[in-house]
From TrEMBL:
InterPro entries, A to Z: Diverse_substrate_MTase, Methyltransf_11, SAM-dependent_MTases_sf
UniProt-recorded name of the protein: SAM-dependent methyltransferase
Pfam families registered for this protein in UniProt: Methyltransf_11 (PF08241)
Methyltransferase type domain ranges (all copies): 82-173
Keywords: Methyltransferase, Transferase
Originating organism: Micractinium conductrix
Amino acid sequence: MPPPWDDEDGLLSDDLLEEQEEWVEVGEEGVHGFRAALFSSQAAHYARFRPSYPEHIFNHIYDFAKAALGNEPGLGSRELALDVGCGHGVVALELAKKYSKVVGVDASVHQLQHAHQGPTISYLHAPCEALSQHLPAQSVDLIAMAETLHWVDQQAFYEQCRRILKPTGVLAIWCYDLNEFAPIGPHQTQATVDQANGLMQAHTYGTLGPYWDDRRQYIDRRYRGLEPQTSVFRHCKHIDNLSMEHIMSMDHFMGYLASWSPYAAYRATHPDRPDPLVELRAQLKELLAVTDDAAPSLRLLWPVFFLLCKDPVQ
């Protein structure tokens, strides 16, 4: 069976589009319910194509956790870590290299069905605003949350973190923003890469613009204004100068774009319109001199930003 992004009639199947049309009509929670259904429907695609986080991203977390202890952390300070909003568990898998036990938490059972497994990793189907119903007070060393803060009730989540973190525990929140192309190989110039980035801006904010959730604005602001109150965490800081890089094929990049919830919303709302990724693929291939869609030929950079919190008020 060919992968879905090779189907130029649409990256989403007709059956899935029919389901999504029903969601448009009967979403239990209005627009947000519709988007949640779309996100769940894309779970397998999300798990396969979303970029992973490089080692230096996790090193920032571990350094922050070490500083919160005031000394080199021993085993007792790495007993339990949570990956909240874990999706397919890519963060949980990495945390399991450092922590004795990792629990991935997600409100979407569809995401958890595609989660990475490991001998010290378990998964919990629950909203992040109810963590203390499932975990003892002052039992957690690290709470990690990637790509999720903008979707949740932030202050309710922070209150849950305050309750279940150890006094020396830390909360590490991060997110990546829209990628940019960078030159790779002799046939890509800065000029053609700039044009390709312009196409991505037009696709993201033009074609898909009306289909982004309103909470996209929090990412644009790099989570500034979403900090917990000082009555919950005594110390928080932002880090805005990080990035991550991946080399990938055009096929993989199209799969990544197809995992976006606004793309799924666009396709569900306009099933009779041409798939915008078909034209975008053709334009990018020409600009970036891609002749083999399966070969690593794209250099992609994502800006990454952190919100790090310690000293929970208990």
